[in-house]
Design brief:
334 residues, Quinone Oxidoreductase, Chain A, domain 1, 6-stranded parallel β-sheet, 2 domains, 10 helices, Rossmann fold
Length: 334
């Protein structure tokens, strides 16, 4: 089979496509013939050397979708459509950047869908994070307001869609003027151009501050996001588009506005119930849900995909297809 291997941190050239034997599953493990995999910011961090606890060399990829090849000692049968995510994939054991991957059964979510694999590949990890952040962490309710800092990321689009389903009013930011129209077209009530300081503009719309905020850019914008949130409101830190995730010399009393709560979200496959994934896929097929734009790459253009993510050249999700699929859109770079 083909596998993409990262031997050491560095530039995109460190992602190598090699031939290696198809891995065999042990008891309680699932071998998946990968059809597509979504790319995530954490895989960029891995390549750049910012992933603690990762072993190298490794096949990256914290998610994949495909069909079961073998699953000894489990309830899954060959041919079953499945998604796999998290739990050490692409960090402590080989992940989804390959024709086949082997994962523990606990990290596998079965589903049924006639959607193209390139569409399905954009869903699992993004949906898991958006669903967990909005429900488990922010407890977003109908009638509340949500600020999404980093709205044109894949996670930003997914969070906006789920927040609308919950009956919330959505404000979302982008640094590029041309992408405000994309946010509006994907159901964002108030697209905001982000120059690094949006709290005053947020409060022009919601004078007391938003009820909840989802911080996806990272620590550079976090103080301003906190300032845009009302007393007893909550900010959830769930993304690092800036590649900056630590706060130097953190002094809580000086950093946190009085009465504003700060928390974080990091989930797993167990945090994405199978019915939630199935419902999202069904609604995507019916045209009643959109999770934002998807840019599709063939397997041999993995370096282009990483390059585009690193330089913020695409809006929404990047997906790589593996099994004879054809990319539906050319990369905006190269």
């Amino acid at each position: 089979m083909r596998a993409i291997v990262l031997r050491e941190p560095g530039p995109v050239e460190n992602l190598e496509i090699i031939e290696r034997p198809v891995p065999s599953p042990g008891p309680g493990e699932v071998s998946i013939r990968v059809k597509a995999f979504g790319l995530n910011r954490s895989e960029l961090h891995l390549r750049l050397g910012y992933a603690e606890g990762a072993r190298l060399p490794i096949v990256p990829g914290i998610e994949a979708v495909g069909v079961v090849a073998a699953a000894p000692g489990t309830d899954l049968t060959p041919g079953r459509q499945v998604a796999a995510l998290m739990g050490g994939m692409g960090r402590t054991f080989d992940g989804g950047y390959a024709d086949y991957t082997v994962v523990p059964r606990a990290q596998v979510i079965p589903f049924r869908s006639a959607l193209p694999w390139q569409v399905i590949g954009a869903v699992p990890e993004t949906l898991q994070t958006a669903y967990g952040a909005l429900t488990t962490v922010l407890d977003l309710q109908a009638g509340q307001t949500l600020l999404i800092r980093g709205g044109t990321s894949a996670l930003g689009y997914a969070a906006a869609a789920l927040a609308r389903d919950l009956g919330a009013t959505v404000l979302a930011t982008t640094r590029q003027p041309s992408r405000r129209a994309e946010l509006a077209a994907n159901g964002v009530d108030h697209p905001i151009l982000d120059d690094g300081a949006v709290a005053a503009r947020v409060r022009d719309i919601v004078p007391d501050g938003v009820d909840a905020a989802l911080e996806l850019v990272g620590t550079p914008t976090l103080p301003d996001t906190l300032a845009a949130t009302r007393i007893r409101g909550t900010v959830c830190f769930a993304g690092m588009l800036s590649n900056e995730w630590t706060v130097p010399d953190f002094y809580p009393i000086g950093y946190l506005p009085t009465g504003v709560r700060l928390t974080a979200y990091s989930g797993s496959a167990a945090d994405l119930p199978a019915p939630v994934l199935q419902d999202a896929l069904d609604r995507l097929a019916a045209g009643t849900l959109t999770l934002g734009p998807v840019t599709v790459y063939p397997f041999d253009r993995i370096r282009d995909a990483h390059r585009d993510i690193e330089h913020n050249r695409i809006s929404g999700k990047a997906v790589v297809v593996t099994q004879g699929e054809t990319a539906s859109a050319a990369s905006p770079s190269s």
